[in-house]
Amino acid sequence: MISLNAISTLFESWRSRKHRNVTLTQEQMHDYQIMGVNFILDNPFCALFIDLGLGKTIISLTALREITMLDPDIKKVLVVAPLKVANRTWPDEIQNWEHTCTLSYSVITGDEDARKRAMHSSAELHIINRENVEWLAQQWRSKWPYQMVIIDESSSFKDHTTKRFKALKNVRPYIKRLVELTATPAAESYVHLFAQIYLLDAGERFGRFITHYKEKYFVESKYTRKLDLRPGAKEAITRKIHDICLVMKASDYLDMEEPVHIEVPVVLSAKEMARYRSMEEDYIIELVDDLDGETIIEAETAAVLAGKLLQMASGFIYDSRKELGEGDKVRVTRTDYHLHDHKMDALDALVENLQEQGENIMIVYHFKPSLARLQKRYPKGVVMDKEGNAVTPWNKGKIPILFVHAQSAGHGLNLQKGGRAMIFYDIPWSLELYLQIIGRLNRQGQKRQVLLYHLVAKGTIDQKVVLRLKEKRDTQEWLLRRITYLRRKRQKRLSELAEAL
After folding, report:
1. Which of 83, 206, 270, 332 could lock onto 129 through a cystine, CB 3.0 to 4.6 A?
2. Is 154 exposed, middle or buried (0-12, 13-18, 19+ CB in 10 A)?
């Protein structure tokens, strides 16, 4: 029989191991973070539209810690997050805080055997990457064990046609609490609110079918098929959701300067502009290469054209060919052709200037050929890896130049300690990706004003993309501010009614 002293010794050993990485206590949480915790406690199905760097992970962890302790019906919690965030951010945050470090967790990533072992863990919290949500739902089916689900970056569930959305929709009846977290709920379109809100209320606010939602709030252009909001639709949509959505803007809670947006003009040669105009107007260009001979590159659709124009602004172009492979499967092969170095030359001058000032530099790319050329030009530059191993040396100031892809490095990575200068070599269309990647530097813990440089090829689609990003940002900002206004108005009215009684 084990003695009480032995049990006490084992407990202290376990407690010591759990606390070895602790650096923060619950008393150090900010008032606005406690407000977020209380909002989750009071609203079983809710969304927190929280700016980057305000601590949405610890807000959620603190709430689920209290819920699992007080509510006997909530025995197991699932967090769905981007892969790097699932593997690194959530485990790190759990271990960093005194009141969460004893929380048991299991990370359901890796190959299928590893995932199967992890999903059967008795841990209170399971963490999975969003790509494997469909797989997890198929494994459990009607035996779904998670009474509470937290979706980190719910904007990745904005498309109602995706398998991940349908998987969560199927298990939604078994979920008693669901929390959505994102800084970009409607970065591209108000249409994307439908799927996110549906997971919260099962169709109560916008109906069960997206067709009805579109018919009620949008009008479709006969020519472009683009959906535009009907008059008064923005206000109507906002009123529908303000009761279950909490907005937190960094500017309201943190003493941080707004990033400086700097446009660096890149002038293409007359020859390159003529070739660009040929593609823009005729959807086709002819390239002559000493080795490959003559190559005709054509854009089949307007969407393909936009992509090729972005490529040409950055200095290359893809030639995509469809071929029949084994089993008559269609295989697409892509060859990239170098066109010019104008943007690379402008980057050289900018990098030299910033390094003379002692700045570490983060360079954002979108296309693989852009990365290949960047690596060739700056061989000592480091590429942000899938596992996020470059995070620590970057934050320690040991990486002078870091190459990041907006999509793969845009969520969950804390990179604010390594530098403040970000250069967009390729400029993404997506406002969500754009804001998320900026949020890697411009977040709580950043000691200096962030500098955002945009290499913009004059007279090209680059200029249109920058303008469109601003328009999208203004639209989303209106939504978030309006939700905050309506919530405060509702709370004031409730307080007045309570006093009257």
Report:
1. 83
2. buried
